[in-house]
Amino acid sequence: MMDQWFGGRPVPVQAVAMVAVDPALRGAGHGSALMRALLMEGRAAGAVLSVLCPATLPFYRRLGYGRGGVTCQWSAPPAAFALQVGMAGTAPLWPADPLDAVPLAALRRPLLADGNGLPERTEALWTLALCPDGEPADLYRNAAGYIAVLPPKDRRLTVADVCLPAGEAMRPALVLLGGYRAQVDRVVWPGGPDDPLALMAGDGVTLDTREDWLVRPLDVVRALEARGYPPGLEESAGFELKDPLISNNCGLIHLEVASSEAKISKLAQVTGSPVQMGIDAFASLFTGHASARALWRAGMLHGEEKMIDRLHRIFCSAPAWMPDRF
């Protein structure tokens, strides 16, 4: 159990890892039964979403999971960062203890509120982020941010974790990465679709991988109440959900948004034609991974254009992404 941030607010989620069935027993429905039981346990424990990094998509789509966001890996030659070497006026980075995540969590908090999909890390997630190979990464930080790198290997420098919410942290990090240009040919790092390191670097930046993580709504009403919404927006919309696994998620929902919060009511009927969608499409809409218009173009959402536009405005947000894998 952990919190994952959407719309500037924490949402309680169930994080699922290492799902497996004995190879000799596969194909008999044991995996589906296992996951259905796990989802019910998560819902009973207070989670409103279930999130995982899939090994296969069709299996989880049948359970109601939809694409929730992305995990990206970027790379660039260290010379792309060397442009910043010699910049003055910023606080340098200093070595820090990678086993003490408390000050790092405080530095990371602005990213949680501004972004979409970032988890509020548990102790286990901090260990995976800063000790990915079982050994602590080299951590450097100042009062504004931090960057953790693994020892260079095969002429590559891997950034294990990075938090650069402002220029006071960004510029010293670029200087640090540029300083490896005599030791490595490539720097690789995790980030989002609009990654700030990629924006600041010079020539040679590439997006090496872009993988989807999945979300399964467990309690739609509580999920809508937990997340935040665009400030200053006052809007309402009606939609009808279909969920073959959790009957309480089904039906007509009227959503009103004001002051970045939502009021939800389950209705017997709504005025006009509500938008209709399955639970997997709602997952992508909820996280901000796909807009209502994009889902409509994909044939995953149906309804009147006016109501689709309302949902588009309500769930308009930053791209959903997270660097963490579990």
UniProtKB/TrEMBL annotation:
Any GO BP: aminoglycoside antibiotic catabolic process
InterPro entries named in the record: Acetyltransferase_Eis, Acyl_CoA_acyltransferase, Eis_dom, GNAT_dom, SCP2_sterol-bd_dom_sf
Entry superkingdom: Bacteria
All residue ranges annotated as the N-acetyltransferase domain in the record: 1-92
GO molecular function: aminoglycoside N-acetyltransferase activity
Protein name per Swiss-Prot or TrEMBL: GCN5 family acetyltransferase
